[in-house]
Amino acid sequence: MILSIKDLTVSHGEKTIVDKVSLTIDKGEWFALVGQSGSGKTMLSQAIGQLLGPNLSASGSVNYQGANILVRPKTEMNELRGKAISYIFQDYHGSFTPFLTIQQHMDEYLQTHGVKEKQKRNSMIIEALESVGLDDSFVKRYPFQLSGGQLQRASIALALLLEPDILIADEATTALDSVSAHRILSLLQELQQKTGCAILFITHDWRHVVRYADKIAVMKDGKVIETGTKQKLVHQPEHAYTKQLIQAAPTLPMRVREVSKS
Ligand SMILES: Nc1ncnc2c1ncn2[C@@H]1O[C@H](COP(=O)(O)OP(=O)(O)OP(=O)(O)O)[C@@H](O)[C@H]1O
Q1: How far is ligand 1, taken at its centre, from the CA of residue 30, in Å?
Q2: Domain that holds residue 110
Q3: What strands lie across the sheet with 223-229, from one edge to the other?
Q4: How many structural domains does the chain have?
Q5: Which of 8, 12, 18, 43 to mutate to test ligand 1, by most ligand atoms within 8 A of the CB atom?
Q6: Which positions fall inside the ABC transporter domain (predicted)?
Q7: How far is the centre of ligand 1, averaged over its atoms, from the C-alpha of 152 (Å)?
Q8: Smallest Cα–Cα separation from 49: which of 16, 76, 20?
Q9: Which of 38, 98, 100, 147 shows a CA-CA span of 20 to 30 A to 68?
């Protein structure tokens, strides 16, 4: 197991946004988090890396390598983020500053994480951009000179630079056309196979869940109401809300069998 979340609660004053969620994510696992809009998926994922806004508080525990990272000092968390836990945000614009080029962003990130040799940093940057389908002409561009989908791909390249243990992807492919989305998800799958990283994948797209997930957790009103393997959850859902989600995608069971066979 790479991450063990126990009774994680996120509150905004008196209001409970995430309510005692417990989950375990194994090394190399593709873990899909699905469910109602506003059910707390983003807040849960941000609490893991201590990224919640100052008006929100988190309690419970998030164990990574034997320690509760929820109570780690901020400076240590900055080091952990990127190498141990990396994020691809739903709002990818937030990953970029308008007055730095794509290369400057990535170079600064690598320097912060101790990659000292300039030549090595440059080749890592080119390789990461190429892996998301952006050629070297993109390195000198500023964020506003990229389309939404290209910028999202650059943010994914940034997140993958240090080959993290856990990648948290929050609706990472929403801005992409279906071919680009498939390319990115295949890339994440490759990375997962190559490095054994775990992926916490937040999505509303059941096609992606069915194709890529190993395990699924369903959230509703701040709680995880059901969790299990993809096969179990799609073929034998127990909770009425999970059944509703699956009924909204009526061809799913057949697809799961097809994907399982391929
Ligand atoms: N900074 C914040 N301060 C207070 N409440 C917040 C804040 N950010 C989000 N919320 C609230 O927390 C709840 C959970 O939001 P969250 O973004 O985690 O939902 P989600 O499941 O990711 O939704 P979606 O699928 O629509 O992205 C919502 O009711 C939202 O309004």
Answers
A1: 23
A2: 3-261
A3: 85-88, 166-170, 198-202, 30-35, 215-220, 223-229
A4: 1
A5: 43
A6: 3-246
A7: 21
A8: 76
A9: 38
